[in-house]
Amino acid sequence: MGIFERYLSVWVGLSILAGVVFGNVAPSVFAAVAALEFAHVNLVIALFIWIMIYPMMVQIDFSAVKNVGKAPKGLVLTLIINWLVKPFTMALLGWLFFKLLFADWVDPQTASEYIAGMILLGVAPCTAMVFVWSQLTKGDPNYTLVQVSVNDIIMVFLFAPLSALLLGVSDIQVPWETLLLSVVLYVLLPLIAGVATRKRLEARHDVSAVPQLLTKLKPWSVIGLLATVVLLFGFQAETIISQPQNILLIAIPLIIQSYGIFILTYWLALKLKLTHAIAAPASMIGSSNFFELAVAVAISLFGLHSGAALATVVGVLVEVPVMLSLVYFANCTRHWF
After folding, report:
1. Which residues in the chain land under pLDDT 50?
2. Closest-CA residue to 190 (of 129, 137, 231)
3. End-to-end CA distance of the chain
4. Alpha helices, DSSP H, located in 203-290
């Protein structure tokens, strides 16, 4: 591991701090960057995520993707957790904390909006960042691609009805442009570029060409991650500073959800005798969220300054440090598999 990977948690912590500080010092700069969006997708964030994911897509060997069908248990586990467990546990935790445990600290209307934001996170399984977590746990990139791709297809059909069911709203409007554009930007385009690059390198008949390129690109992948973190926290810096108590209240059930889903999935993966290269990414997908989509939908439904929008942003706040801790745990328990 290089210095970037070895001290990634330190760099992420510094990036979070930098985003909050600069977001409060120069809010107009971040406001200008935030305005560069199409269909609620920020184009600058998309660029940095693209830089982050492209090197991982170069690793994907499509000749090996067809072998995923020979080991379907990991894919089935991912789908069950993401669509039959995670949305409902998130809704349950939201209700438990904000209707019962925290009822005296949050007014009913705000509590309902916080729950709505949590539900939107729960119904949107991770699409982009999971490639980072998979790489950090030495996950199978081909299998991870299939897991993410199948989830994306299902999300197109189930996001709206599941959100409507759990929110208790029959006329929920999902910004389909956001959903489809996000999938194209965060998965399809980097995948096409990565596959084209790999084929061109393999055409040279030099077995060291791909590993050499990946070594050069690896620092850029981490830089893309850190730049994304700085921007996300810079966009919400004023909210983070002005509402620290509410952010803590929202963070508690989100953290419990992330660790709970990971523990359940990891345990089931052990029982199913999956390899670690499949089990780790499968557990990471369920533990993390497609926060770009959740934030966009929350803003569309409830408004930029709503409790729902704040809850989805807190999801971003807790996700990176929580996922890094789970990466560390997964790597320390590789010998279990």
Report:
1. 170-171
2. 129
3. 22
4. 209-235, 237-242, 244-271, 276-287
- pLDDT, residue 45, reads 81
**pLDDT of res. 169:** 57
Residues 6+ apart with CB under 8 A from 271: none
Contact assessment for residue 308 and residue 245, using Cβ atoms and an 8 Å cutoff: no
Specify the pLDDT at position 174: 58
Smallest CA-to-CA distance from 323 within 86, 133, 63, 98 is with 133
The phi, psi pair for 274, rounded to 5°, reads: -75, 155
Of the candidates 144, 148, 152, the residue with the CA atom closest to the CA atom of residue 276: 144
Distance of CA 173 to the CA centre of its chain: 22
Q: What angle do CA 122, 125, 126 make, to 5 degrees?
A: 130
pLDDT at residue number 291: 72
Tokens of 52: 């982050």
Report the amino acid identity of residue 38.
F
> How do residues 195-247 score in pLDDT, each as one tens digit?
899 889 888 878 788 888 878 887 887 788 788 878 877 887 887 788 788 88
Contact 250, 311 (CB under 8 A): yes
C-alpha count within 13 angstroms, C-beta hemisphere, residue 232 = 28
DSSP assigned state of 288: S
User: Distance between CA 187 and CA 217 in Å, rounded?
Assistant: 18
For residue 166, give Cα distances in angstroms to 63, 90, 163, 178, 316: 40, 10, 5, 21, 21
Residue 125 pairs with which residues in a beta bridge? 289
> Backbone phi, then psi, for 307, in 5-degree steps?
-65, -35
Both tokens assigned to 112: 């309902």
Tell me how far apart the alpha carbons of residues 195 and 214 are, in angstroms, rounded to a whole number. 13
- The pLDDT score that the predictor gives to residue 198 is 85
- Please check whether residue 58 is in contact with residue 198, taking contact to mean a CB–CB distance below 8 angstroms: yes
Whole-number pLDDT of residue 228: 80
Q: How far is residue 271's CA from residue 134's CA, in Å, rounded to a whole number?
A: 20
DSSP readout, 86-118? HHHHHHHHHHIIIIIITTTTS-HHHHHHHHHHH
